[in-house]
Amino acid sequence: MQIKKFMVCASVLMLVSSASMAGQAADKENNEIAKSKTDSQENIAAKEEKKAPIVIEAEKLSFSEETGDVFAEGNVVVKQNTDVISTDFMRGNNKTTEVWIDGKATLQQPGTELVGTGTHYNYTTRIGNMNNVKGLVGKEHISSNNLEFYPEKYIAHDSTATKCPAIVPDYHMSADRIEIWPGEKMVAYNAKFWIKNVVIYSMPKYQTSLKKGESKSAFPSIGYHSGDGLTISQHLEYPIEDRLSAFADLDYYSQHGLKPSFGLTSKQKGYSLKLYQSNEENGDDEWIKKEAELLFTLDPIKMGKVTGYFTASNGKWKEGNISGWRQDYNLYFKRNTIQLSKKLTLDVGAGYERRYYGYDNSSNNIWRFNTKLTARPNDRLETWVGYAYNDQSGTSVYEYDKIDSDRELKTGFMYKVDKMNSVGVKIDYEIDAGKLKDLDYTWRRNLHCWEADITYREKRSQVNVKLSTIAW
User: Fold this and answer.
1) Which of 106, 302, 349, 403 is 20–30 Å from 432 (CA)?
2) Where is the signal peptide (predicted)?
């Protein structure tokens, strides 16, 4: 029976994806052939990049074949592959593939745009430096007295960083040195965290992920919950070595006191490990204490238009008088968003999860399917309708992770009234029970680089307020 269910899930994904499910290369330590093939491809790509010509465009251009010296003036643009430098006057050398710019210059690379003076850059090694820098690396707006360029990272000295795009940001981080691996992580040394002109805290070393969906704000979020009272949350992360970091989530509730979470994260090539202890609350106001848990997360694997996700965990959970070890194995496949039209998109996913509870030696096999249709008829309105299906062989001993309904319908909308205000409604409907689970009304207020959400949950008679930095 389980095999048939798995085939149904896989068939749905295959029908909507039209993607070939190519086999993934094995780990390089166990498959030398795959390693050799990959290395060859990388070497070819590196050679092609190195051989790519340097193109210089300018109103006035002079060149010495003997020395290789180049002088360019007026709307100067220097290009090689995806690297572009623009300025008014430049001197360089074609033989050493170097450029020097005393005045203002703009350096553009994928996801990066930096403006500064006193620029030196080598197109072959992709190493250089720039003074008095301001610009954008990913979503981070940075400034630096001196910035060094390397093939895979930037090092900014006497620098600031913020996600707030304002000329005078509401919040920012300053540091003696900031190292940025675009799309990977950012590490700051002797970091200070500012709200306006006030330092709220400092750390000798600070790290944050720059991966999509993993980044957490270095600044506190403040809120109110009818059941929890006033809440203040702060995330901290300290790098111990290159791939190992310690973290803490300091969550304070006026009704419950301090509920901290802390642990270690090891990010390796292809996967990550997380050993931690936490106090967590779900959307139904149910709490769990994870006295210790080890979480394994495999990096997402792309298979054509489908992405696979896998996690495995083993931890000691405690909820009231119920305490025991819990194991979880979760495999999920998600198809790339399908663009049905310019204004309509479809998301589809399916997976399998197995949970084992040591408290009573029970288990639960869960087959799930999710789909969501989203419409954006204009730049003000977004509406959606989603369906979630869970086929369970058992149930949970903990209220915290119990699935209340096997089939749920979720719908709602968010409407942007003006530049500063949005309103929305969310509806959760339990199909099997034939009842409305939740009806939530939200007012969202833009506060420059902060965002405030005020939500009234009618079915629960709750008011929730959250103030946090905007996730640009």
Assistant:
1) 349
2) 1-25
For residue 263, what are the contacts with CB-CB under 8 A and spacing of at least 6? Answer: 246, 247, 274, 275, 276, 277, 278
Per DSSP, 38 falls in state H
Q: What is the enclosing helix (H) or strand (E) of 44?
A: helix 32-51
Question: For the chain, what is the radius of gyration of the CA atoms?
Answer: 26
Model-level pTM greater than 0.90?
Answer: no
Tokens for 471? 């996730």
Residue pair 460/443 in contact by the 8 Å Cβ criterion: no
Residues 324 and 357 sit within 8 Å (Cβ to Cβ): yes
Q: What is the pLDDT of residues 288-302, one digit of tens each?
A: 999 999 999 999 999
> Domain map of the chain by residue range?
404-472
- Non-local CB neighbours of 461 within 8 Å, separated by 6+ positions: 226
- Which pLDDT score is estimated for 42? 45
Euclidean distance between the first and the last CA atom of the chain, given in angstroms as a whole number: 45
Over residues 126-148, the pLDDT tens digits come to 899 999 999 999 888 999 999 99
Amino acid 51: pLDDT: 59
CA distance 147 to 154: 7
Sequence-distant (≥ 6) Cβ neighbours of residue 192 within 8 angstroms: 173, 174, 175, 199, 201, 202
